[in-house]
Amino acid sequence: MGMIVLSMAPLPGELVAAFIGQTPGVPEFEVIAGHEMTDADLRDAAARADVILGDFTFRRPITAEIAEAARKVTLIQQPSVGYQHIDVEACTARGIRVANTAGANTESVAEHTVAWGLCLLKNMFYAHKATRQCRWEQMGVKPAELRGRVWGIVGFGRIGRAVAERLKPFALRNLLYYDVVRPERIVEERLGAEYRELGELLSVSDVVSLHAPLTDATRGLIDAKALATMKQSAFLINVSRAELVDEDALADALARGRIAGAGIDVFSAEPIGPENPLLKVESDRLLLSPHVAGVSQEAAGRIITMAAANIARALKGELPESQVNTV
């Protein structure tokens, strides 16, 4: 009997199997599609599985109950950078390795971030809407330039540094960053980035983009108090984790004109519902997207390829790459 891969992702089992099978020397295996299973059936399938592919939509969490049931599982492979829907502590206690696809969507998220910064400064949504309505708003759009502005990056890991790299040609006045771990000075010099404490960064930046992971320390990082320290002309971009931002406080700040605008790609409940406070804000400089910053066509290909290769390693008895826990 072959090995079993339980896929919790909303992908055809045949497609998952085809990607895994691209790695030479993989032993015989079967993919079970579990995205639409009931919780009870999912636990039963986990008990028979050797490897689990997680859900990139985060709708099917890997709970302590699933980890307890997954007695044969050696690896839970998450096909995304984020893995907050996985009870990593429970998996570690059961001796199950958990891995993500770190770095697969770096370029996609970085480009999305810079594109939104430019759209917000240039007031592109208002320009598009007015022109579609045959209103010739040459004096009403009031676009601004990125040159000479201050951009603040919160979270200076792979994606934060990729954003900094892409901002170099724009001749910013200052490129600032905040992170709990400071890189070597050579990294700061190469990217032209200067460290600032979070409060100072928020108070002087014209654009603030968030690229920090979700931890106990970063949950609610941008709350009403933090927003109150920002410049009234500033823009906030969140392409990281929704929980970093207090959505009610952000909606209030936008409605009051306390900050100029925002670009939000992640939400406290996804898919977004009508109860989300940001949907009640009437602003041409509030840009929303359905958690797509990291899923360009190219990034999606890299993610599934990396995830499948790691699953193949596990099936062959090898160690995975991008492991996020210690087992």
Distance between the termini: 27 Å
- Rg calc: 22 Å
The total strand number stands at: 12
Q: Report the biggest beta sheet as strand number plus sense, adding barrel if it closes.
A: 7 strands, parallel
Shape annotation: elongated
Low-confidence sequence ranges: none
Mean pLDDT figure:
96
Please state the structural category: alpha/beta
Order of helices and strands: EHEHEHEHEHHEHEHEHEHEHEEH
The name of the CATH architecture of the largest domain is 3-Layer(aba) Sandwich
Strand order in the largest sheet: 8-7-6-9-10-11-12
- Total number of distinct structural domains: 2
What's the CATH class label of the largest domain? Alpha Beta
Count of discrete alpha- or pi-helical segments spanning 4 or more residues: 12
Instruction: Tell me roughly what share of residues is in helical segments.
Output: 25-40%
Could you please describe the fold and organization of this structure?
The mean pLDDT is 96. Helix 11 (247-255) links the parallel strand 10 (235-238) and strand 11 (261-264). It is built from twelve helices and twelve strands. The chain has a seven-stranded parallel beta sheet with strand order 8-7-6-9-10-11-12, sandwiched between helices. It folds into two domains: 3-102 and 298-315, Rossmann fold, CATH 3.40.50; 106-288, Rossmann fold, CATH 3.40.50. With 327 residues, the protein is α/β, with parallel strands linked by helices. The longest helix is centred in the C-terminal third of the chain and has 19 residues, at 297-315. The radius of gyration is 22 Å and the shape is elongated.
